[in-house]
Amino acid sequence: MVLEQDVNTAGRVRRVALASAIGTTIEWYDYFAYSTATALVFNKLFFPSLSPSSGTLAAFATLGVGFVARPLGGIVWGHFGDRVGRKAMLVASLLLMGLATAGVGALPTYHQAGVIAPILLVVLRVLQGISAGGEWGGAALMAVEHAPEGKRGRYGSFSQIGVPAGLILAQLVFFLVNNSLSPDQFRSWGWRIPFLVSLVLVAVGLVIRLRVEESPVFAKLRSTGERSKLPIVEVLRARPKQVLAAAVSFIANTALGYIFFAYLLSYGTSVLKLSSTTMLVVVIVGSVVWLASIVAAAIWSDSVGRKPVYLAGSVLLVVWSIPFFLLVDTAKPWLLIVAVVVLNIGLGATYGPQSALFSELFESRFRYSGSSFAYAVGAVLGGGFAPLIAASLQSSTGTSLSVSLYMVGVGVLSLLAVLAFPRKPLVAVTGE
């Protein structure tokens, strides 16, 4: 009887982990489809009256607008995630993201609607940002709060791999569409396909998420009546240092991540004059390494602790920032692959244990709010305008060294925040 119960529990945990991975993959596919289109075509479609470099900067600025909305999403989803439940917020965030993404695919271009086109683009990007602000926290907590003791890193990685998996899926769809159509066809209507595909993916994701059980930790909070009335206020009062350290620790990962998968596409095609096909392949290879390193780092963190793994990854990101662009600037595909492979090992080490680490920083009654807000603020400060900053530095200085120095700067900043983390979990996660 006990054995049967253990088997049922293990099966439930695996289903939740799988649902977390699939749901976040779909959610981030939507988010990264926008990033990919920004690097490839949005400057021509929505800002054609600007020069090529200015159009690229304007397109990357719309990318950053979505990040500005993420803390708002973190507060809203976090509040209701701590009050109503983790599962309900995951369903709501996925639905909002899917509708916003499909809306981008149906937008008129500047030539069709004039200035209203980029305005609508920004509005839909804001909705994407609000959705993304609460998606990660819910997916992370569902996986971690269901996980058995000693395996929180492993199970928490399922929410983390959704990011590179979504990126890979978005890149593959753009790769197939781009290589199936002529350049004129792709610019005319083919770019819409990856966004409209989102409707099918979201329907699949909703079915999966509606079938999983609520987090047992939240179920206990609900039954005991210990839910926080204003979780974002309480977490900022009770754990301000943890919120700050968590947010700053994420700056380098998200900044260098967006330089890798958003700015590098634009840099490779516009500055190095490499084909978009070549650059998409480079990004896909790097993303596969990122996914694998996330899982490896998360499992490693269950053995040695979250902080040592974070430190190793943070140091690698700082050290590799200058060699990264030295290799990229050779314009040799195999050296580009070496550059992104090493970079993504560092990204994986600073992302794999994140779900477990952030969960272990905050008490359950305000955990969704604390985790989501810290994650969203780190994303704004890091990835929000990293492609725009990188493009501006390259354009104004004429050298990628300026971008590398920017990468070193944010890497050192996050490294200092990681040093402030406790060596052991600050609070319990399960069984509270």
UniProtKB/TrEMBL annotation:
The keyword Transport is annotated on this UniProt entry: yes
Principal cellular location given in the protein's record: membrane
Entry's localization field: Cell membrane
Membrane topology, as annotated: Multi-pass membrane protein
Annotated Major facilitator superfamily (MFS) profile domain residues: 16-426
Keyword Hydrolase: no
Pfam family, one: MFS_1
Listed transmembrane segments: 57-77, 89-110, 155-177, 189-212, 243-265, 277-300, 309-328, 334-352, 373-391, 403-421
InterPro entries assigned: MFS, MFS_dom, MFS_trans_sf, Sugar_transporter_CS
Keyword tags: Cell membrane, Membrane, Transmembrane, Transmembrane helix, Transport
CDD domains: MFS_ShiA_like
UniProt-listed PANTHER family: SHIKIMATE TRANSPORTER
Stated name of the protein: MFS transporter
Organism: Amycolatopsis albidoflavus
